[in-house]
Every structure is written in C-alpha cells, then in structure tokens.
Amino acid sequence: MVESPDLPLLPYRVIGGVKCFELFAGVVQQELLPGVFMQGYGYNGSIPGPTIVVEPGDFVQIRVINNLPEPTSVHWHGLDVPNTMDGVPPFEPSPLIQPGFGLDYRFRIVNPPGTHMYHSHYESIRQEMMGLGGLFIIRNRQEKQVTRDFAYMLQEFHLDGLPKGELQPGSYAVDPMSDAFNFFTMNGRCFPNTSPLHVRLGDCVRIRLANLGMQGHPMHLHGVQMLETAYDGNEVPPWNRLRKNTVFVAPGETRDIQFGAWNPGRWPFHCHIPHHTSNNFTLPAGGMFTTIQVGD
Fold it and tell me: In what order do the strands lie in the sheet with 75-77?
C-alpha cells in the first residue's frame, strides 16, 4: 500500500473496466505551518494534489475540471501515453482546458511499476510554480519485500509579504516569477508541520521522491544507509544499486530509495542544503525536513 504522508490518495470508480478519477484544478489556500497559509494553485483543494495510484495494464480516465481563472492542461510526467493525451498545448494535439470546462484524459498504463508525476504544462513558469502538480505512482501488486511504501513531492515557493527572518500567521500570495524561495515543502508542508513516519523494527521501507521545483535537493537520511532502487520510474538492477546516505533529486526527476529499519530511534530525513531546512530563514529547523521513528 502506497502512503503519501499529509496527502490523500485520489479515489476512483471502476466503470466498464476503466478506473475513473476526477481532478479539480483551482485556487488553494495551503497551510504550510500552523496559521501560515499560501495562496496558490492546486488540485482537489491541496498543493500538491492528491496522489494517483494505478497498476500496470490499467485503463484509466482522469477527468480534469478547470476551476482556475485561466486555461490549463495536465501532463503525465514520465508516462508513455498517446500524443493527444500528453497535455502540452500548443505543441501537441492535446487540447487546452478553458476555465469552467473539463477534459477526459484516457490512456492505458503501459509503463512498469514506478514513481512519476502529473503537473500543468501550460505557462509552466507560472502554473507549476503556483503549485499545480502531484504524484502519480504505478504500484506492483505482487511485490512482497517492501513492507512500508511512502511517497513525497518536493517543492519550493516564494511567499510575498513576509519579511526575511520572520514568521507571522496569515495568508500570503505565491510569487511564481521569483527564484528567491523562502519556503521548502514535503507534500505541501514545512517542518515541524510534516507528519513523522512510524515504522516497525525490521520493516523494509521505500521512500519515493519527486522534484517538481527549480532547485535540486540532496535528501539525507540519518541512522541507516539506503539503496537507490529506481530513477525516473525505472528500476535499477540489484547489481547496479548504490548504497548511500544522501540521494540527489534534480528538478523533474524521481528517485526511489530503500532501507531496512534495523536501527531504533527517531531519525531526521531532510534536504542537506541549509537554506532548504529553514522557514523563511528563521533559525529553528524547518522546511524540507521530517523524521522517521523506527520502533517504539
């Protein structure tokens, strides 16, 4: 079972053998920290949007309703889909979704199990940086080795109106044109508002990482070493896997890491760029940071 901490899995109905999902693009107030909200764009009321989980061979229909004040599209990042379904107007025949209208994306899952993304591919400099994206995971129902399976979307934002080094409750607009990022999120939250992961001693743990932003993130795990098991949704053969404690996730990439939970304790898992583990350059740990509790 795939879990995306602090994010729901997108529900679906099976109609005529087709898995039918619904995504609503709209203006979202996302709570990064208690009392600190950002005004951005998201799906189904959250930034990032809910996590889509499918299986190889599924035929899917994803109905996207545009409640934004501007046109949009959805691109299925890393998925091998028909040209009309790829969601990159005007460079492809995939249609643009006008405000107040919807579009059904229909395709069969031909990729093997792996970690992917979905995001706007229309006026990307604005819409991606306003938050329009989510995780798209193809799971392996037959897999037995992994006992806990977590997924994270990594993003960064510039919130206007907060003086550097201050955290005041309120709602702040995202400036998608600024690269002076002051908030760094895991599944739409900043530490200490990120939910800790709880695993049992002896669990085999996978963490899926996807980077929708503009900056790379060297994700560092304390307490145990980890194996890189997949790049961009493609499995790394066991004889080529590297054992590391820091894995770099570049913009547009996904990485899967795996480790055995043998060392009890509460262990940090975070980006190792110091500015990325701060909330608006305040001193306590924040930003792209969570913890993993192994055992009691």
Answer: 52-54, 133-138, 114-119, 75-77
* Encoded tokens for 99: 């405000």
Predicted TM-score (pTM) of this structure:
0.97
Structure tokens at 157: 């934002």
Polymer length of the chain: 296
Which two tokens mark 259?
């480790």
Q: Which residues pair with 23 in a beta bridge?
A: 64
Which two three-digit tokens encode residue 261?
A: 């939970």
The distance in angstroms from the start CA to the end CA of the chain is: 22
168/295 Cα distance (integer angstroms) = 36
Both tokens of 101, joined, read 């209208």
The per-residue pLDDT for 94 is 87
Report the pLDDT value the prediction gives residue 250, as an integer from 0 to 100: 98
Peptide bond into 90 cis (omega under 30): yes
**Spatial distance between the Cα atoms of 121 and 20, rounded to a whole number of angstroms:** 22
CA-to-CA distance for 105 and 218, rounded, in angstroms?
A: 34
Q: Give the pLDDT score at 141.
A: 87
80 φ, ψ to 5°? -90, 100
> Which 3 state secondary structure label does DSSP give 275?
helix
Percent of the chain beyond pLDDT 70?
A: 100
Domains of the chain, CATH where assigned: 2-145 (2.60.40.420), 151-155+183-294 (2.60.40.420)
Exposure string for 127-139, b = 16+ CB within 10 A, e = fewer? bbbbbbbbbbbbb
